[in-house]
# Entry
Amino acid sequence: MLGESNVGNSSTVISNVLLVEGLKHDLLSIMQLCDKGYRIPFRYLGCIIEHTEKKNHMFDALKG
# Structure
């Protein structure tokens, strides 16, 4: 592990994201997102990270 950092945009910041050597992406904890008010429905082709109150998508990873 290289360390920890914060990721996000102006409306949402997730703290304590692990930075791991050799990985191309940061590791986000599903529980951290849920604690911030997001729901993450997983489907066969991917997932969507959506805020439960604001209904905005932080990330849309559905393929198809």
In short: The mean pLDDT is 75. The two ends are 33 Å apart (CA to CA). Residues 3-60 form one domain.
